[in-house]
């Protein structure tokens, strides 16, 4: 076995800022992150454990430690012989995320973490407690190639894809933080304030569907029942996308009923070409059709994300056009989640005025479209949607 876990020197990120409208699909290669248990299916784990000279059932024991007990410290694996523990942890539980910054907001009920990956790339995740759920917003790429001009991550360009295990580790860290009471608000034994991560949203850095294999692997690890995975309900997982149509169809065919969120932001091609550059490949109608097919295949109601940008996309006629386009495909299959734009450095855009926002919502509702303004958390710690830029680097 090659020593994958040998630390490498930390190269400077190489990506230059993208020019407006430029899309990046191929992630620069920066050396693979070390192999980790969470990269592997249960069958692959057994194979690898055996190839390392251990008995196959050790794979399940190790999985129980990691996914069920959230333990990666060999000292705590007392059901394994000492030498076996040390080997297995070295070979299958290498550290992937080094915490570099932790910031809190909302009286400690929102927590933003910045992580350094093995090659020096930095990603962020945001953990949020609500009265009846705990949501973590995770990253799937270091940076993003989709170049949406209102999003801080998009402006930074794509550094690299994350591995399945790097994606999953964010959730494992969060689950540990809940167990240790690091996130304010909940109490042990209080069923109203669960100590488990109930919701995972792929709304941090990156376009997860552009890193499809790793993202789907992560979804499987998150949803597989313990000890194979974390046992999180697929219904609690939201995949957010700019609208990569073929990948939406592929996701629908996976048979895992995660919620799909389509970042639309404009109902007309002229404006969407500018706000969401992928629209130059797949138009508004094609993206909405794919979202509708996703609903038909999975039975899961789709969310439409719409960041309300002052005087740019918040006109009443755009609410009407959006409602018409959604209703044309049927009723009850979709709801709209407008969110006031979070400011990003250097951007000329700002959030819609409250009255304008309210009017936009009411016009959608008048057309029978269920609409809820998305709660936004962590704006003061640059932890809100579109603000994750690893400025702590
Ligand atoms: N690449 C995925 C996930 C990224 S962000 C996607 O685009 O869907 C998750 C959501 O936050 C997306 O709907 C995105 O458009 C939105 N967003 C990005 N920047 C924002 C900002 N400055 N204010 C509010 N929402 C923003």
Describe this protein with a few key phrases.
single chain; 393 residues; two-stranded antiparallel sheet; 11 helices
Can you give a write-up of this model?
It is built from eleven helices and eleven strands. The longest helix has 16 residues, at 164-179. β3 and β4 form a beta hairpin. The chain has 393 residues and is α/β, with parallel strands linked by helices. Helices cover 31% and strands 16% of the residues. α10 (316-328) packs parallel to α11 (354-366). It has helices at residues 42-51, 58-68, 82-92, 152-156, 164-179, 212-223, 245-252, 269-275, 284-298, 316-328, 354-366, and strands at 98-105, 110-116, 122-130, 133-137, 141-143, 158-161, 199-202, 237-241, 259-263, 302-308, 334-340. It has a nine-stranded mixed β-sheet, covered by helices on one side. A two-stranded antiparallel sheet has the order 5-6. Mean pLDDT is 90; it is low at 1-14. The protein binds S-adenosyl-L-homocysteine. Residues 146, 148, 150-151, 203, 207, 240-242, 263, 305, 307, 339, 341-342, 344, 385-386 line the site of S-adenosyl-L-homocysteine.
């Amino acid at each position: 076995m090659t020593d994958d876990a040998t630390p490498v020197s930390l190269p400077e990120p190489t990506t230059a800022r993208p020019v407006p409208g430029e899309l990046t699909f191929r992630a620069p290669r920066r050396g693979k992150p070390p192999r980790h248990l969470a990269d592997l299916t249960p069958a692959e784990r057994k194979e690898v454990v055996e190839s390392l000279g251990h008995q196959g059932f050790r794979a399940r024991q190790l999985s129980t430690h990691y996914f069920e007990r959230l333990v990666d410290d060999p000292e705590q694996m007392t059901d394994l012989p000492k030498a076996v523990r040390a080997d297995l942890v070295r070979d299958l539980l290498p550290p992937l995320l080094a915490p570099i910054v932790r910031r809190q907001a909302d009286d400690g009920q929102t927590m933003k973490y910045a992580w350094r990956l093995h090659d020096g790339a930095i990603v962020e995740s945001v953990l949020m407690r609500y009265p009846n759920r705990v949501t973590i917003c995770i990253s799937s790429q270091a940076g993003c190639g989709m170049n949406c001009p209102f999003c801080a991550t998009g402006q930074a360009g794509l550094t690299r894809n994350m591995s399945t295990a790097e994606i999953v580790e964010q959730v494992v860290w969060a689950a540990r933080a809940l167990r240790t009471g690091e996130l304010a608000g909940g109490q042990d034994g209080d069923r109203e304030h669960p100590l488990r991560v109930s919701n995972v949203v792929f709304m941090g850095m990156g376009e997860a569907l552009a890193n499809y294999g790793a993202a789907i692997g992560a979804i499987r690890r998150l949803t597989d029942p313990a000890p194979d995975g974390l046992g999180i309900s697929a219904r609690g997982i939201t995949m957010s996308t700019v609208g990569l149509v073929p990948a939406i169809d592929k996701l629908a065919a996976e048979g895992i009923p995660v919620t799909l969120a389509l970042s639309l932001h404009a109902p007309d091609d002229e404006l969407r070409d500018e706000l969401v550059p992928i629209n130059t490949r797949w138009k508004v109608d094609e993206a909405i059709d794919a979202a509708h097919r996703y609903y038909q295949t999975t039975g899961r109601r789709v969310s439409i994300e719409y960041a309300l940008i002052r005087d740019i996309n918040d006109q009443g006629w755009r609410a009407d056009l959006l409602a018409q386009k959604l209703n044309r495909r049927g009723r009850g299959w979709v709801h709209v989640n407008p969110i006031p734009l979070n400011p990003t450095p250097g951007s000329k855009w700002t959030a819609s005025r409250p009255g304008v926002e309210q009017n936009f919502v009411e016009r959608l509702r008048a057309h029978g479209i269920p609409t809820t303004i998305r709660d936004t958390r962590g704006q003061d710690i640059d932890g809100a949607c579109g603000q994750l830029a690893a400025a702590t680097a």
